[in-house]
Amino acid sequence: MGLIKKIDSYLLKTFLGLLAMTFMICIFILLMQFVWMHVKDLVGKGVEVNVLAEFFIYAVASVVPLALPLAILLASLMSFGNLGEKTELTAMKAAGISLFRIMRPLTIALFFICSGAFLFSNYVLPVSQVKLWALIFSLRQKSPELEIPQGEFYDGIDGYNIYVRHKNPQIGMLYDMMIYDYTEGFQNATVMVADSGQIFFTEDNKYLLLRLYSGESFENLNKNQKRATHTERNIPYRRESFVQKQLLIDFDTELNRYDEDVLSDQHVSKNVGELLESIDSVQVLAHERSAEQSAVLVENRYFGRERESGRNVESDAQAAPDFKSYELDSLLASLTPEERYRAASASLERAKSQRDQIDYNALMLNDYQRYIRRHEIELHRKFTLAFACLVFFFIGAPLGAITRKGGLGMPVVISVVMFIVYYIIDNTGYKMAREALWPCWAGMWLSSFVLLPIGVFLTYKAATDSALFNPDAWVKILGKLKRKSYKLWIQLNKRFATSKKVSL
């Protein structure tokens, strides 16, 4: 019994250590991919260190649902691969310990990991998603950092183009400057040239003060050439020489935080309870809208009489006049042309109004269904993360036991291939559910339904000591097939030669 406990402790330490390492590696790789996707929101904005750290913290939380299953797959592969490569797994089986008993402590540990993954996706991830996207929207609205290059035009300030031939960063001077002011349009641009200049920010960091020395400005006076007189057209611009000139430019460098309350009603910002509550409330609204649509159709005008709301439809139908007892053509002919025109116009207007009401109700019902579908997708996603961790463990552990290859070579290759397959299947199911081509539960659980039988099959093969991925076993199988095919070929040749002799 003591030996079993030592083995369990050894397996737990090995697996959890590898899991921590692989999880950090996966987090780093996926985080770099995420940052690369949003690099344009960060570069050139003069983002402070604390804001940048906040962005990375929220980004790490957002990539955990992808990193954790991949890390579990890689860690289980490496753990059991190392055991098989060092013949430790063989020694355990020789001592009478089955594969399922060896996997028991890791399965129990994985149960707690899956529970933690569910709690993370239910409580932590919604909050981090709201804060992350609020921060991204805030960064997108932030003005770019003022960094004017030398020898090229800078267009980072809205409505201006600035050229600087030379800079002296030690004293903050800019030399041989040219400024194009097209805030009133390219046709009405003001051009300024100066020997030197300086750029300052106001104390509130909302305005840019541009101070120019020893220069000239050229301003278009004919901003509306069509209304200009002949005399005005002879004076198309004004030239001004100055010793010192100042420009005050709107340039807010502060990070204006996006209101997080705007994102609070999004499906990604809710836990399981909030998702269920939102689905139920919108389903009630959809039911009321559908009932309203039916009431509009029922409570319409029939035979020139307005139905009263709340009346029995069957009794109204029984009380309605019988068409067979009337000659509609004669009734229409008895009306005057003006009355026929009014009746046709009224009927047409009622039909158009009815059609508009039906179209509006259909649009609202589609919006409700889309809202419900997105919330149902997010609801299933809360559980698929935890279940994916379990499935990947029962794929990685038996694969490691079968291949008996430790290290980072073979396990990394197998993990990447399996994760790519999982990602493609999961993304396909998500798109099918989002487009309402499949039920939400079928689309979101598609990857689990596909990979679970693979895990069961691999676990069975590993428990029965199958040589599924053993190269030597495949060499033997191919050798047997080669020998059998060679014997078959010889027999066919003999039969062919015998039949040829008989025919002669």
Structure notes:
By secondary structure, the protein is α+β, with helices and mostly antiparallel strands. It has 4 domains: 2-142 and 380-468, no CATH class; 153-250, no CATH class; 267-378; 470-504. It is 63% helix and 13% strand. The chain has 13 helices and 8 strands. A 6-stranded antiparallel beta sheet has the order 1-2-3-4-5-6, with no helix packed on it. A two-stranded antiparallel sheet has the order 7-8. Strand 4 and strand 5 form a beta hairpin. Helix 9 runs parallel beside helix 12 (446-463). The termini are far apart. 22% of the residues are buried.
Please give the number of β-strands. 8
Q: Gap between N and C termini, in Å?
A: 80 Å
Overall helicity: 55-70%
H and E string: HHHHEEEEEHEHEEHHHHHHH
Low-pLDDT runs: 301-317
Please tell me how large the radius of gyration is: 38 Å
- Largest sheet at a glance? 6 strands, antiparallel
Shape: extended
Strand order of the largest sheet: 1-2-3-4-5-6
Structural class: alpha+beta
Q: Please, what is the average pLDDT? A: 81
How much of the polypeptide forms β-strand, as a percent range? 5-15%
- Tally of domains: 4
Helix count, DSSP H or I runs of 4 or more residues: 13
